[in-house]
């Protein structure tokens, strides 16, 4: 007999908060001129928040069935990405040396004139190359690449982490749960919604699931998926 699934004590909202943190600092970065002192502070905070998204995703999902094998494929994809790899190096370099490798707009650095904010290869560093392009554009591109992984996880493991899917018959079958288990999960007594609703069009179970859904947590991740991955 299949055992009932027991949720680990870590929710996808933790990942959502980290994405929100990265989104906040990226927004601030866009609003700040590179010659302002705050620009480097904000970029440092942004790249740290960005890097932590995949860490928190692994922390939240590590106890879910088949996640480890699923993530290895996505992790390999990020490692092969020039932009994603570079941002890991930027974060490590900044933490180890305190240096943010950004050449500012209209500056001459090591004999090179930069007409926009761009990354450069620091002397005597482990960084061998940097992606070409504007700092802001590349920063957003890296966030998008990370969010693509998160969005795939949200879709492939939806019965576990998407509150819009948890309160469905499909999820109950996957978790080997009953409606009473779901009632207990959201904090109401087992059988609390069990009554005859006398609805000729909608089954009692569907009505119960709809009522219980109102007690569930809010969906917090879709707003960032829509913002960065859904084309207008």
Task: Report on the architecture of this protein.
It contains 11 helices and 4 strands, in the order ααααββββααααααα. The relative contact order is 0.13. The model has no long low-confidence stretch (mean pLDDT 91). By secondary structure, the chain is mainly alpha-helical. The protein has one domain (13-167, 216-229).
Rounded to an integer in angstroms, the radius of gyration calculated over CA atoms is 23 Å
The counted number of beta strands is 4
Strand content: under 5%
Order of helices and strands: HHHHEEEEHHHHHHH
Task: Kindly report the oligomeric state of this protein.
Answer: single chain
Number of domains: 1
Helices, by number, come to: 11
Shape: elongated
Tags for this entry?
two-stranded antiparallel ribbon; mainly alpha; 59% helix; 232 residues; single chain
Topology, element by element:
Layout: H1 13-31, H2 37-61, H3 67-80, H4 82-97, E1 102-103, E2 107-109, E3 112-114, E4 118-119, H5 135-156, H6 158-161, H7 163-166, H8 169-175, H9 179-186, H10 204-213, H11 222-229
Antiparallel strand pairs: 1-4, 2-3
Helix pairs in contact: 1-2, 1-5, 2-4, 2-5, 5-11, 9-10
Summarize the structure.
By secondary structure, the protein is mainly alpha-helical. The chain has helices at residues 13-31, 37-61, 67-80, 82-97, 135-156, 158-161, 163-166, 169-175, 179-186, 204-213, 222-229, and strands spanning 102-103, 107-109, 112-114, 118-119. The longest helix has 25 residues, at 37-61.
